[in-house]
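Box S1 | Example of a co-folding query
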Amino acid sequence: MEHNKTYGGLDTFRLIAVFLVVANHTAPLETFSPEADFFLTRILARLAVPFFFMVTGQFVVARYLTDTNRNFHSVWDYIKKILLLYGFAILIYLPVGIYAGFYQKMTVLRAFKMFLFDGPFYHLWYFPALLVGLLLVCLMLRFFSFRSCMMLSAVLYLVGLFGDSYWGVTMHFPAAASVYEACFQLFSYTRNGLFFTPLFLLLGAQAGGISSQDKKRHKNILHLSGLFFSFLLMTAEGLILHHFHLQRHDSMYLALPVCSIFLYRALLKWNRKPSNRIRTISTWIYILHPAVIVMLRFLAKLSNVVKFLIANCLANYIAVCLLSFLAAGSLTVLISGLRHKSLHAPANTASATGRAWITLDRSALHSNVSVLKELLPDECVLMPVLKANAYGHGALPMAKELNQMGIYDFCVACVSEGVQLRKSGITGEILILGYTHPDQFVLLCKYHLTQTIVDYEYANELNRFGKKIRVHIAIDTGMHRLGEYAGHTEQIYKIFEMKNLIIVSAYTHLCTCDTQDPADQAFVKKQVQLFYNLIDELKCHGLPCPKTHLQSSYGLLNYPQISGNYARVGIALYGMKSSREDYCFSNIHLQPVLSLYCRIASIKELAQDEGAGYSLAFTAKRPTKIAILTIGYADGLPRELSCGVGSVLINGHRAHIVGRICMDQTMADITDIPDVNAGDIAVIIGKSGKEEITAYDLAEQTGTITNEILSRLGARLERIMV
Ligand SMILES: *Cc1c(COP(=O)(O)O)cnc(C)c1O
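Box S1 (continued) | Returned holo structure for pyridoxal-5'-phosphate
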């Protein structure tokens, strides 16, 4: 489906784009036709780098933009990553650079030019251009509207254009030319972070914004024909400039931004599987391919076969692509191997060797996100609730997957959950819904977490801490859990005046959305009214509240018309209601995301009247075979399921749990199931053959709700996204 926003098309095109960059540096058609090569490398391949900048625009700048407070930390986290890559790349090319004498006669000005603009090797200009461009764009956005920034960047691009492809025109104006010449002391090209990058970052941010508004959609044929015609234009432009020898350099064309917009829009619609691996591999191909080019030249001195690979440009291109791909692929595998080692287990082999584990169904999650998005009113975005380890699903894999879908704002219950996400590199807004002890306020600053104001007293306490903290004010509109009373307007005004609190939002929690009972419905209405009356009063008092939110799963499902800027969705996102029978006004189809598995450790045969387990709570009424399962109540399997209450699925058959569930082990009767062996998999929640056990079943058997069953699933279960 189209609104399943996964951006797989962007991932695939990264690989194509990076091979275009390689073409740029190897001139594959030069041996056959210099004209054809000009077209390929100086026109077509020029689409590659703007595309990369636009991706950054969509994922980094757009996020910066959606944050009303222009919070810089998500950009900063990205910058740190790019700096790390840039630093690593500098190191790789240091020997070649020294050998080629790049670092001789280093002056401050030269270092400035090299590291901030040109890059210390010919392709490495990309990193400083990205960093400088990004900083410039964020700075502009701090002071000007998006539209003004776009105009400014377009002007910068035009200025750059006349130092690049249109240099021949500039030369007719000696005064201008001398200004440019002076600037070229500082950077060799105008294709850099000042003139080139900002426009594409902003165009990417804009394209991303459009793609996330699912309603206004253009047919892809429009983008494709736009791409075709603008590319024709760019080709004509390039050939004419080339013919009249006007180019000083050939990275910037008038038609390039237009062409890039159409290309990007078309790619957003290209329905492909997203792939982390392709993303990483293309980055490394970008970094490594010049090293491969150098290495091939070196080897050519030693071998005749390799000589051919240098002399024939096309063969050279193909060889460089292949070898770079191999090198980048191996490096990616190596890095991800190291990462996995640092986690507690090699995640993707868990189904082969794991003791007990959870699988998360990626496509179910995507589908839930897109059906829930359809329910959201305008201006409202999902703020998934990742408390209690994402209701047992695993906060980190969920956050990462949701990031992939363009969702960056999350809620958690407590500060430690927020810190855990930050330490794992999750960057967007993280709102703590519950109480944080004053001794831990320092963590709010350190990890830039957003705190809920649980009442007026608490606001005072937080304000006294003395550092600026982002907060959402909880308002009690009748649930009487957390929040300052909606009627206490004087206190709430005072909270707004506290110097150290950066007030981002006010919110309330509705507590009777899950039934059709008229009294409950009236109560919802009352809560909403109390909340918005307060917001209006604040406004009249000159204290407009930047954002508001009221919705959680049942609110959204049953009262989708209630407005707000966020929907704090928990259980529905995980594909469940709390109880099977709960009323749901929106007739939407949610898919459970989680399945839970364990393994048969051993099989025991009991004679009639023999007992098993603690207190010998099970007695065999007939000769019985029992399977010993590698899961227990410490993993979150409720002990109430003991002694025949619960069951598991083995090879498509249902086996009753017998005896008492232990901390780490459980027994199931497999007497009537053929062909069961030690090592076989048992399903606790999920499907096996035609049978299925859902979290609803477990909740009903133990007298609770799915929320409790799921959120109690233990920490030692491995979690794998499939
Ligand atoms: C847990 C929680 C939610 C999420 O509730 P669901 O019913 O799971 O969607 C939303 N808001 C607050 C304040 C919560 O504590």
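The CA atoms of residues 516 and 583 lie 7 Å apart. Confidence is low (pLDDT under 50) at residues 342-349.
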